[in-house]
Each structure stands twice: as C-alpha cells, then as structure tokens.
C-alpha cells in the first residue's frame, strides 16, 4: 500500500531529524554555551559609553537619522522582514553589528549575555543588535550607547501561538504524542494534559512573547508581577510594533529614527504558503488566547499604546505615509520580483534565495529575482529578497552549526 508507506516514511524521518536536532542543540547549549559564558569575566562592568553614532552628512533643517538600535527579535512576528530592513540599513551606513557566533541566535533560549557576541572584548560598542535572543536588558544595554533606540514587535498571541505550533511543533518533543489531523485543536482542548513546562523547547507553546522578553512565561496571570513586567517593557522600549499593523509600525519607526522611505521598503520574508495557514475559528481562537493569557495582557496593553502613538502622529498623516510605503513597495515588486510574487520552495531557482524551512515541511515561500534588473536597483533588489541565513553569511557571520545541520538535512533529504 504505497499510499500508506509515504506518511510513515516521512514521520520516521521527521522523528529521526527531530531527535538529532534536539540532541545536537542540547549538546550545543549544555556544553558549548556555558564554556562561552565562563570565558567572560563576571566582574567586568566595563560598558559601552561612546556617544551615539551620527551620520557623516546631514542637511540642515532635517532631523538626524539615528544609527544605534536594538531590535528584540520575537519569534513568528514578521521579525525576519524587519531584520532585513536593519541589515540593509546597517550595511548602507557601515554600522557595527553585534552578531552571535556559529548560530543565528544568541544561544536562545538561554538568556542573552554580552560574552555571546562574536569576538566580544570588554568595552566593545555596537550600533545594531538584532538576532534572536532571550532578552536581558542590562547585558544588552551595556553593548550600545545609552541613547540607542530599543524596539520590538508583538502579535496577537492566538495567531502567534498557531504559527509557533506549526513552525516549531517538531522540535517540542511533548507534541509528538499528539495524534490526529488537527493537533493544534487537540492540544487546545486540554493544554495541561500535553504541556510540560519543563519539556524541551516548551516556551514555544506557552506565552512565547513573555518568554522572549525575558520574563517567566509560566507566571500566574493574576500575579501583580505581570503588570510590573508590562510596564517595564514600556519603559525600556521606545517603540513596540505590531505585526498586524506592520506598515503603520514601520512609518512610526521611520519617524522615530528619522530614516528615509527607502530604508523601510520591504518584501514579506519567511511567510507561509496560504494553504498552510489554518484559520483559527472563534472557539479555538478564544482557547489559544486563554492559554497564552500573559501574552494576551501584554498585547492588549501595547495595542492600546500603539494607537495612542498613531493618534499623536496624526491619523491622516499616517494614512498618507502608509499609502506612500505601499506604493513604493509595489514599485519595487515590479522591478525586482520575477512573476511579481512569492513562490514555493521548489520553484526558487537560486539556492541563495532559498529560505530556511521548518522541520518536516516546505511551507515557507521565497522569491525569484528578475533576470534583468537595471543597475540602479540591482543591489537593493537582491538585498531585499535575501533570506536571513544567507544575509547573515553575506555580512560575515560564521554559521557553522547551521551548516552542519543543513548537511544532515540534505543527506536525509528532509
Ligand atoms: C553633503 O550632502 C550634500 C547634498 O545633500 C552634498 O552637496 C555635499 O557635498 C555633502 N557633503 C559631504 C561632505 O559629503
Ligand atoms: C543622549 O541621551 C542623553 C540623556 O541620556 C541626552 O542628554 C543627550 O542629549 C542624548 N544625545 C543625543 C545625541 O540624542
Ligand atoms: C487593538 O486595538 C484596536 C483599536 O483600539 C481594536 O480595534 C482591536 O480590536 C484591538 N485588537 C486586539 C486584538 O485587542
């Protein structure tokens, strides 16, 4: 029965790969990460106190573009698209990035430490920090000028949960025992039956935003600490963007940073095929929200403050600027993208344009560059379309862990 063999085959492969990845990362974090942490002098309090980086040339009367920025990259929130914007901005102005070494995150899910920055020396100062991390304010802050701008992105926690469940499910071992067609629905029917807060990678399935921001994702939602943490986020971050209002968020970012329209142009990166995105129905949506109550409280707070910011910016002005951004994005689309839209992985011709896929599926879309692009846009088009991993390599980051993992995947054809 060939029709039955294939799913089994696939599941076996997925399991082997899941185990390998789990084992490998466990080894990596348990063995290599502490080594790196130990190398740093815990007494070392030397921190970056250099003045903000100012642009070489500014025209009079205009504000000065800000160059120092910390982007707390949350998971599954369109943050890869924002990363591309920051990579481009940093390259354009020859800014200094704090990159991790070996991998594309700072030993997530362990807390950020300055010693995890590639080639870190005490006193080092950076302009941009933007890779995945579990946030640790004092450690991050010590690496940038005191005037650096802190930003992050949030997303409706029910949808974030759905996205995380499908993207990371394979690397969260306690989900392997879920059976049936709709594992997400099954999990949400009775989360505590399946969820194990001590389980490997458990954070991906419970209040992921709270966790990424450095807080305890298992807090009782009624605890007074929840409100304290939320207010702390508000104090520390100059702009909290919303994935649902990405264009409005970018306009606020441009305004805050005094950047140009070109700096915030983008194509959606790391997006899923529409057919691979199940709709969360009313009841499931409610359950997902309830299950991620801490994130829901966080989101509610920043959804409100976001619209106050838009109000202060001016609604009409916002509408105008969003229209400008969309028009320019469309123009770039017709200049850069072959066929004008994102395509399935199999249809991507250049390997350097292949996005990283979640284990077990190939649902993440990518792009083909047009064959003929005028000189003026050639560079920008390529940069705007380059997926995160390849862009990091282009920026000189040595991703040896990812490389090994890629060989294993290619070997298993998964
Ligand atoms: C600064 O920019 C202006 C135009 O914006 C240009 O005319 C001028 O030469 C630039 N100066 C320097 C030092 O680059
Ligand atoms: C940097 O921040 C300090 C206060 O922390 C402020 O006095 C100073 O004007 C700021 N500098 C710039 C260039 O924004
Ligand atoms: C966010 O705020 C807007 C405007 O107040 C509101 O219409 C929307 O329902 C809110 N979204 C969520 C998920 O709370």
TrEMBL record:
One of its GO terms (biological process) is myelination. It comes from Monodelphis domestica (Gray short-tailed opossum). GO terms for molecular function: galactosylceramide sulfotransferase activity. The lineage of its organism: Eukaryota, Metazoa, Chordata, Craniata, Vertebrata. Pfam families: Gal-3-0_sulfotr. It is a single-pass type II membrane protein. This is Galactosylceramide sulfotransferase. InterPro entries: Gal-3-0_sulfotransfrase, P-loop_NTPase. The keyword Transmembrane applies.
